[in-house]
Amino acid sequence: MYQWSRALWRDLVPLVRRGAAPSRDAERRLLRACEAAVMGLGDPAHPVHGTDRALFGAIRHLLRPDDQLAAHRIIAAHTAALRRAARRRPPARPSAAGVRRHGTTAVRDQRTG
Question: Which of 25, 49, 61, 87 has its CA 20 to 30 A from that of 33?
């Protein structure tokens, strides 16, 4: 996930540096927002919908108005690529503690008491 968030950050940081108030703090906030968005998209079993929208909302104030469309397109391209990559990734195997010898997953009884 590190490489995905850094790639997104690298593409967006020039727009932030041209923004209304360029600073190291703005770049750090951009990085944190990119990392949070990528973590939300990284799990194909539990996809988070609207992550690109949330990321854009989190960084919109760091951008000049005429750079916002470019930033939105960058975010959309990166999140689409990450979703495709997450779907191609093989599903995670269950832990050894929950697998029987013949390879099926052990499921505990859900008894109410």
Answer: 87
pLDDT in tens, 98-109: 555 565 655 555
Unique residue bearing structure tokens 């990321």: 55
* Opening angle at CA 100, ends 90 and 113, nearest 5: 105
pLDDT computed for residue 14 by the predictor: 92
Q: How far apart are CA 56 and CA 73, in angstroms?
A: 10
How far, CA to CA in Å, does 72 sit from each of 8, 26, 64, 84? 11, 17, 12, 18
Task: For residue 71, count CB atoms less than 10 angstroms from its CB and return exposed for 0-12, middle for 13-18, buried for 19 or more.
Answer: buried
CB contact set of 82 (below 8 Å; sequence gap of 6+): 4, 38, 41, 42
In this structure, are residues 15 and 93 in contact, taking their beta carbons and an 8 Å threshold?
no
Model confidence, pTM? 0.69
